[in-house]
Structures are given as C-alpha cells and as structure tokens.
C-alpha cells in the first residue's frame, strides 16, 4: 500500500475525481463569474465589454456601499457573539457542572432549525401588533420602547443581527467545546495541584491550546456573515428601502430582478475577495504553533 | 473516549450544516422536478407557467380553461399549467430564460418586464397570428395589445385588465353619516370624520412597497394628469419633479393624521386586506383584482368601490391601471400554432365571461356584458373601469425592477420619515446612475 501511495501518479488518480468535481462546480464558475463582471449583459442580448466600469459604478452606488456597511456590522455582531460569548458558554459547560449535556443540546438546537423557519418565527416575535417583543415591553411598562421593529430602517438590521447571534452561538460553542475536550485532563489536574484559579487555567491552558480551532472558527464566522442571505430574504427582503440589504441579497436583486448580470457578478467578485481577505486576517490574528498532545 | 466525544460533537456540527443545506435545496429541487416534468413529457403537452398559489381562487378557473381546451382542440395537445408563487416565479423565469428552457407559454407582465426577453430573442413574434384573425385582434380593448408590443410587433396577449380603486364599506359609511366623496377635499373630510368617530379610515400595508407607492402614483396622477406619466417615460420630466414630492408628502400627511391603521408600516398585504374585510377599516385602496376576494369574504352587499377623486378636479378619472395576466409564447415552443390557439381560446368571450362572473377578473377584450350576472361590487368596479379617461401603468411595470421598484422604495422611505424632496432626489440620482449599469 505504501508503495502505491508513494507513487505520484497513483496519488493523482485518487485525487483526480474529487478535483474534477471541484473544478467544474467551483473553479470554473468563479472564473466565469469574474469574466461576466467585466461585461454589461443580461445573458440574452449581445453583451458589451465594459472593463472595470461595473466596479467603478458599484462603489458609486449608495445601495451597494450601504450593503457593504451592513455586512461589516454583521461580521462584527457575529464575531462578538460567536467568539467571546460562545467561548464563555463553552467554558462554562466545559466545567463539570450538572446538566452540561442538557445545556449543550439546548444551545445547539437553534442551529439545527432551517433558516427560513427561524426567520418566520422571529418575524412573529418582532411583529409590531401581536409580536412577543412588543407585548413583553407592554407588560413591563416600557411602551415607549415599542417599535415597528422590522420596518424601522434604523433598527431592522440590528434586529436581524440579534437573530443571527442567537441562531449560531450554539454551533460555534460546540466547535470550541470539542476543541476543549481534546485537551488532556492531566494538564488541568497539574494546574489544580498548583492551586491556580479557573481564569488562569483558561488563559494559560485552554485558550492557547484551542487557538488553531479558533482560527478555523473565525474564518467560518467571517465568511459566513459576509455571504449571509437567508434570514434577510425571509424577514425583510432587504427592505425597508434597502436598509437591511446585504451584498448577497443585493447581488440577487441586481441579477434576477433587474437582469444586470454583469453588475451582479461584480458584487460576487468583491464578496470573493473579501472572503479571501478574511482568511488571511484570521491567520494573522490567531497565529499559533502546531500542538501535539 | 475523549476522541470519541469530539468526533460525535463535530459530526453533529457538520450534520447541521448539511441539514440546513438540504432543507432549502430539497424544497427547490422538488419544484424543479415538477416544473421540468411537463417539458420532458410527450410532445403533445403544452406547458404553461403561471403565477399563483393555492390561496388564489382563480387557479381553479385557469385550470378549467386548460382542461376545456385539452378536451377538444384540432392540435391534439394537452395543456398543463404550473403555478408558482410570485417572487419564485420571477426568479425561475429569468433563470429559464438565460438557459433557454422556458415552457411553451408563460405568464408575463407588460412593458419593461417582457422587453429584455423580447430583445434577447426569447419570445415569439405573434403579430402574424393577430393579423390573420382580425376578429380576434379587434376584440381587445383599445391600447391593451400595445402594452405588450415592442417595435410595432406583438409579443404578448393580455387576458385581463386591472386598475386601482378605493374599496369602501357601505355599512361603516352609513353608520358614520358620510357618503362617497366627489372631490379630494370631501375625501379628506370623510377620512377626518371617520377618524374622529374612532374608525380607521383606510387600511394600508407598508411592508410591500408597491402598495403605498400605487397610492402615491394615483394622487400624483390627480395632481398633474397622465401627461406627467408620459413625460417621465419620454425622459422629459425628472423623477424628483414637484408633483411626486407633493403627492408623497400628501400621503405622509394622511399617515400622520392617523388615516391609516396603527402600525401599518409593518403590516403585510394579508393583514391589511383582513382589516378591511373584517370591517375594521372603512376604505382600502387596491387593485380591482382583490374585488373577488373581498366579495367572497363575507362582506357581500356591504362592499363598494369608488375612484379616488383627483386632487385637481380637471384630472378626475385618471387611475393607476394596466392590463393583467398577460401571456407570451416562448421562441423555443415546438407547437406555436397550438400555443396561440390556446391563448385565443382563453380570450374567447365564453372563457372571459366565466372569469368575470365567477372570479371577478375584468376581461381585456370588449364584449357585451350581462350585468345581471355580475356581483354588485364587480358591477361598480366595471363601471369605474369604463369611466376612466386615462390609465397609467404601475411604475414598477413601466420601468421594471430598476426605477420602478426604487420609486416604490422611495415612497415607503418617505412614509418612514425621510424628507420627501431628498428621497426623490435620490431616486433621480439612481435613475441616472442605473442607465449605465
């Protein structure tokens, strides 16, 4: 077997099918998308080569820059909820407390539900007439804080970011918890004998040892919130007046509604570049030595 | 043991991703299959793609038209109509267009919606069919076929007409001692009286931007007539003209005066329709297509309709309206004769009468009506329809998803508190930028 795997040609044979599928469904479409982004086209009439004009127009388009800003807010919101907060929850459940398995399941539950169902549920929560949130504010006597949540252009995006935070905090908690459980317990036993506090244990043992996983997780969080689509589509459709538009929803709108496929492909390319930058950034922030247990 | 827990946890995490993925795409692919099944079937099947959901009462009527045509036609074809929800339909049609896989006959909106598909050579030119059958061609009301003509050639067949009317609750009007207004000031007075009596004057929906926008467009038409519409189409007038600003401010004033229900800005179209049909609001400005729903809601005799009096009385009876439920034949259709014959059958007097009497759909063709068979509400709507001297199509049909939808968004943002002048300046800027994208 080793002999077979030592041969470069036989490795190629094993890798080829996967690579072909990857190329056909990922690499080729990306390349085609970059090409389309230099055209002015509705994919039906003859297209016109316009160079980088689509990109110039994009950055002069206030809806697009608004969407970009919304995406950055989304990234920040998700990072807050899915790194420090998830880490906190994960660390609490990592301690041998009663019912930690139960809570793992509870925290994880929202991310099992399909995004559309989550969106619909929260639309009802935010509903201005019979929504839970406004009713709750009424009960505790804070009527002045009641809003038409999803139709207020200053609030709608934050309402959705809160849902995203809630939905995926358990998912990232599980990933981080898994990394923590991978650390040999002897380290903690030793620390305990030395009389260290829980905080020191976290700071000096847990955190450095799960750094590689946090790096991967950060990439997942950032790219996930850059290309976020479903809750926006279900809850507001990018409205009111593009106030909750994200790059992905605006890309859909420009492509499938106004038939400006070139313009929409331009948004796709910018999204791709941003996602790649986020990978580089996380690599930089979470630089760590490989660890072996 | 530890490794095992890790593995289980990570697998669970991975599964979530997959489940979420399946949840969405599974639904889609299911519909994909049902959509393409018709195409792959025997060549004797004529596939029609149409907008509609189970909640729409008209789909039974449409299906019965297809059945009747299938039973007996010289081409021996079977017609099968696939219905899709509105937003889903738009996405599906554009995708199918780009990949040359459009069904034989497809539902379309008029004007700018069909235009790119015509320019892309995806739609059959049906001028010759209309020329050959003058009787059929002449049966269409004036100006309806033109809305689906490009470069002087016909590409689509309108099956219905529609326009915006103000539905009202006769009982509420009576109880509050108000009558149908004949001037704009009277209309405002009616609203005011109702409001003071603790009745919500109008039901409005703010989540679907086109609903407040058609109201703004109606008022703008009453301020400057249909020449404003023509001038904007011809590029002689800008989007941020005074009339638009004034009309939007007028609607905002109504909102501030409490003429719409509380929290209307966050309410969907179903909620606002229900508000009206349940007798909780006195008026409801909507397309005539809702007449059937309102009639069948149990309001019965209480439902009435009038046309909103113009702000400037000289522009009375200029309404937002257009053709509706138009169909076009795709270029890839193998049996174009049968497809056109089906549309001819659909627009025949017999079928259009059935749609009118049973489903409240106003026909696009002219023929003598048996008014006795009409419901009282439909009779009023038809009278209004015949009285109109000018119809201006909805902006989002004239200009499609670009300027049209942005007009709708602009109206909503004015209602949301944005300065009207600034908002329409933004729309004009958008229109100028959009030309170059």
Automatic annotation (TrEMBL), chain B:
Cross-referenced InterPro entries: Bact_solute-bd_prot1, SBP
Family matches, as Gene3D superfamilies: Periplasmic binding protein-like II
Keywords: Signal
Transmembrane residue ranges: none
Signal peptide coordinates: 1-20
Protein name: Extracellular solute-binding protein
């Amino acid at each position: 077997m080793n002999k077979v795997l030592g041969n470069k040609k036989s490795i190629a044979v094993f890798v080829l099918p996967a690579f072909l599928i990857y190329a056909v469904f990922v690499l080729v479409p990306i390349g085609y998308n970059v090409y389309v982004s230099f055209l002015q086209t509705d994919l039906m009439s003859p297209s016109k080569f316009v160079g980088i004009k689509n990109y110039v127009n994009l950055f002069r388009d206030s809806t697009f820059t608004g969407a970009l800003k919304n995406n950055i807010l989304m990234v920040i919101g998700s990072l807050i909820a899915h790194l420090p907060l998830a880490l906190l929850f994960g660390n609490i459940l990592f301690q041998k407390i009663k019912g930690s398995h139960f809570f793992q399941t509870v925290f994880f539950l929202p991310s099992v539900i399909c995004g559309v169902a989550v969106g619909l549920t929260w639309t009802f929560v935010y509903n201005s007439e019979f929504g839970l949130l406004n009713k709750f504010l009424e009960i505790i006597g804070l009527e002045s804080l009641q809003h038409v949540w999803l139709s207020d252009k200053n609030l709608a995006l934050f309402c959705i970011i809160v849902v995203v935070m809630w939905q995926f905090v358990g998912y990232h908690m599980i990933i981080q918890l898994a990394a923590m459980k991978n650390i040999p317990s002897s380290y903690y036993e030793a620390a305990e004998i030395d009389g260290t506090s829980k905080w020191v244990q976290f700071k000096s043992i847990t955190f450095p040892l799960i750094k590689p996983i946090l790096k991967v997780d950060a990439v997942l969080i950032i790219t996930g919130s850059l290309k976020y689509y479903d809750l926006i589509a279900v809850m507001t459709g990018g409205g009111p007046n593009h106030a909750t538009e994200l790059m992905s929803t605006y890309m859909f709108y420009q492509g499938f509604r106004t038939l400006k496929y070139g313009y929409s492909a331009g948004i796709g390319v910018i999204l791709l570049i941003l996602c790649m930058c986020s990978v580089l950034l996380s690599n930089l922030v979470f630089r760590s030595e490989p660890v072996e247990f | 043991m530890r490794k095992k827990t890790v593995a289980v946890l990570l697998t669970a995490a991975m599964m979530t991703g997959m489940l979420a993925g399946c949840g969405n795409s599974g639904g889609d692919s299911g519909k994909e299959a049902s959509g393409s099944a018709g195409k792959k079937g025997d060549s004797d099947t004529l596939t029609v793609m149409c907008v509609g959901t189970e909640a729409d009462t008209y789909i039974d009527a449409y299906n019965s038209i297809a059945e009747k045509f299938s039973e007996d036609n010289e081409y021996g074809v079977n017609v099968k109509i696939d219905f899709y929800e509105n937003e889903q339909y738009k996405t599906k049609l554009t995708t199918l267009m780009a990949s040359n896989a459009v069904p034989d006959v497809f539902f379309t909106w008029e004007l700018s919606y069909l235009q790119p598909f015509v320019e892309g050579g995806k739609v059959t030119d049906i001028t010759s069919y209309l020329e050959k059958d003058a009787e059929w061609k002449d049966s269409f009301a004036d100006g309806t076929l033109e809305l689906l003509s490009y470069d002087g050639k016909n590409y689509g067949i309108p099956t219905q007409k529609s326009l915006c009317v103000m539905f009202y609750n006769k009982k509420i009007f009576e109880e509050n001692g108000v009558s149908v207004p004949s001037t704009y000031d009277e209309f405002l007075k009616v609203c005011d009286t109702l409001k003071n009596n603790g009745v919500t004057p109008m039901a409005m929906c703010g989540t679907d931007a086109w609903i407040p926008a058609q109201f703004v467009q109606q008022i703008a038409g009453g301020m400057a007539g249909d020449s404003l519409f023509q001038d904007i189409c011809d590029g002689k007038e800008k989007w941020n003209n005074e009339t638009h600003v004034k009309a939007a401010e007028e609607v905002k004033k109504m909102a501030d005066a409490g003429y719409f229900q509380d929290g209307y800005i966050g309410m969907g179209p179903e909620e606002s329709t229900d508000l009206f049909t349940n007798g909780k609001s006195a008026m409801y400005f909507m397309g005539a297509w809702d007449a059937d729903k309102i009639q069948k809601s149990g309001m019965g005799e209480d439902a009435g309709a009038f046309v909103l009096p113009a702000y400037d009385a000289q522009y009375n009876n200029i309404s937002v309206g257009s053709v509706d439920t138009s169909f076009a034949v795709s270029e890839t259709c193998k049996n174009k004769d049968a497809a056109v014959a089906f549309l001819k059958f659909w627009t025949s007097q017999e079928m259009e009468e059935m749609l009118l009497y049973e489903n409240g759909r106003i026909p696009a063709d002219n023929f003598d009506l048996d008014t006795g068979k009409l419901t009282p509400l439909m009779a009023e709507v038809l009278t209004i329809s015949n009285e109109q001297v000018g119809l201006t199509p909805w902006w989002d049909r004239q200009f499609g998803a670009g300027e049209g939808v942005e007009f709708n968004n602009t109206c909503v943002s004015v209602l949301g508190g944005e300065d009207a002048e600034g908002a329409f300046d933004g729309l004009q800027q958008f229109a100028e930028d959009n030309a170059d994208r």
